[in-house]
Amino acid sequence: MPAARASWVRPILLANLIGEGLIVVTGGVVRLTGSGLGCPTWPECVPGSFVPVPHQEQGIHKFIEFGNRTLTGLVGILALLSIWAVVTHWPRRRPMHWVAYGVLAGVVAQAVLGGITVRTGLNPFSVAGHFLLSMVLVALSTALVRGAEDTESGPGDLLVHPLARLLALATAAMGTVVLVLGTVVTGSGPHSGDAVTPARTGFDPRFVSWMHADAVMFFCGLVIASLVAVRLTAKDGRANRAWNVVLLVTVLQGVIGYVQYFTALPEVLVLAHMFGATALVVALAYGVLDLRSNPV
Question: Transmembrane residues, as ranges (predicted)?
């Protein structure tokens, strides 16, 4: 690839990651403003029109929901550009190719799942799946950005003791459990996104919040253990820095979570917590990938 074109590879992959993060934030805005059915059908916004129409009864909510749908189109374009950048710049790096294809497939699946969510009146389990799929896309997009830092292909050397890597993988798995329980808490709380009927899971909000908090405490212990294991065995400073970031994001996310719980879930803090979840996924992806040279 010509040098001028190669200089665009990392910015494209970074833009793709930012786009995936923005779709989470705008999705949160849709939910917290009660705009989930601002466009009451799918794939059209209203019957007969793919865009909001004048005098539509949903008012400002139609623009908020339509804006989120439009951003989905943008991330689709960025996913296509990412495939082009990866395949042309690294024609033999098959793992990077598959990750890029996975991002595009996920964007398509996200659009379909969004349609199902609308057509089921914002079913809380569909909404939860919508968010969790976004987290998968954030992780894959992070892997592309991290992979762009390497010039070689294929798995490189392990930079920590194998047990440290196993502990880090267990921490990432526990992070997944925390995210899943977080969606259950949200789906049991007051922010339904303005469903036609109360679209709640039916679980007791206090009980599931306690379950989530217990999982978070266990996760925090694993993060600290992973950080110590990495510090003791890492062959360079990259892994140490990555796990320092994981710990920092975990602490900040935990503080936001507890404050929002004890302040009756104000919308601003709920949105900040969703952004924090996205940042945590990015940090964990880096934390795991930085344990090996040329991980993608």
Answer: 12-32, 71-91, 98-118, 124-145, 166-187, 207-230, 242-262, 268-289
Question: What average pLDDT does range 227-240 have in this prediction?
Answer: 93
Residue 83 belongs to domain spanning:
3-289
Tokens of 69: 């749908």
Strand partners, 226: none
DSSP string across 172-235: HHHHHHHHHHHHHHHHTSS---S-SS-----S-HHHHHHHHHHHHHHHHHHHHHHHHHHHHH-S
Q: How far apart are CA 290 and CA 225, in angstroms?
A: 17
CA 159-162-164 angle, 5° bins: 85
The burial class, CB within 10 Å (0-12 / 13-18 / 19+), for 213 is middle
Tell me if 294 is assigned to some domain. no
Query: pTM, whole model, 2 decimals?
Result: 0.91
- Domain-located, residue 271: yes
Count of structural domains, the chain: 1
Whether 74 is in a domain gets the answer: yes
User: Which residue reads 């057509």 in tokens?
Assistant: 119
Distance CA 185, CA 25 (A): 18
pLDDT, tens only, 138-150? 999 999 999 998 8
Answer yes or no: is 295 within a domain: no
Closest CA to 87 of 98, 74, 102, 77: 98
Tell me the C-alpha distance between 160 and 107, whole Å. 34
- φ, ψ of residue 46 to 5 degrees: the values are -135, 155
Read off the tokens for 136. 């998968």
Q: Is 53 left (phi over 0), alpha (psi -120 to 50) or beta?
A: beta
